[in-house]
Amino acid sequence: MKKALNDQVTLEAAASNNYLAMASWCEVIGYQGAANYFYTQSDEERTHMLKVVHYLNDVGATATISAIKAPTGSFKSLEGILKIALKNEQIVTAAIHKMVEITQKEKDHSTYAFLEWFVNEQVQEETKFETLLQKFDLIGRDKLAINEIDKILAADAADPAA
After folding, report:
1. CATH number at residue 154
2. 94 located within any domain
3. Residue 69 included in any domain
4. Rounded distance, CA 108 to CA 92, Å?
5. What is the dihedral of CA 103, 58, 120, 71, to 10 degrees?
6. For residue 162, what pLDDT is reported?
7. Could you give the 3-state DSSP secondary structure of residue 9?
8. Which residues fall within 8 angstroms of residue 29, CB to CB, at 6 or more apart?
9. Which domain covers residue 46, as residue numbers?
10. CB–CB of 16/46 below 8 Å?
11. Is residue 70 situated within a structural domain?
């Protein structure tokens, strides 16, 4: 369980860096709404990482902070970034589900209770990206549609709870 949680620290750190790279690319391209959205996502993933770090330390397991692979800084499109983000969230979800299975096998009720928040969070994360990707089918992929999607991302960044 300790190894799985420490692996999750690394996974969350990588997710934070991936979103930071996406935000930077969006900012350079001129998608300011998307940039703000992904900067917020990056901060959120770092917060998730810290939750796991604190949990490990609180239960006396001691968190391990590992090096992470540098993210790509080159992307083809805003839609492409959202597809990558969804895939990354699905990877995180799978890792969390695997940890839940470990807690059940080991009868680790404390860690199971801790992970419940992450299970629920991942449902929201995946749904959010799936909904954003649907906007391309609903609105389109031309410049005006992408501008509208950028505005949607800006609104989501301004009010993440909405």
Report:
1. 1.20.1260.10
2. yes
3. no
4. 20
5. -100
6. 63
7. helix
8. 78
9. 2-63+76-158
10. yes
11. no
Q: Report the 3 state secondary structure along 17-77.
A: HHHHHHHHHHHHHCCHHHHHHHHHHHHHHHHHHHHHHHHHHHCCCCCCCCCCCCCCCCCCC
- Give me the half-sphere count of Cα atoms (radius 13 Å) on the Cβ side of residue 90: 8
Question: Dihedral of the CA atoms 10, 15, 21, 22 (nearest 10)?
Answer: 170
Q: Tell me how many degrees the CA angle 129-130-134 measures, rounded to the nearest 5.
A: 115
pTM of the model: 0.95
The dihedrals phi and psi of 72, each to the nearest 5 degrees, come to: -70, 150
Contact 8, 95 (CB under 8 A): yes
Name the domain count of the chain: 1
Evaluate whether residue 71 is within a structural domain: no
Do 66 and 49 touch, CB atoms closer than 8 A? no
Q: How confident is the prediction along the chain (162 residues), in pLDDT tens digits per residue?
A: 999 999 999 999 999 999 999 999 999 999 999 999 999 999 999 999 999 999 999 999 999 999 999 999 999 999 999 999 999 999 999 999 999 999 999 999 999 999 999 999 999 999 999 999 999 999 999 999 999 999 999 999 998 776
- Between helix 109-139 and helix 78-106 the angle, nearest 10°, is 160
What would the two tokens of residue 19 be?
């979103």
Please name which of 91, 94, 71, 67 lies closest in space to residue 25, comparing C-alpha atoms. 71
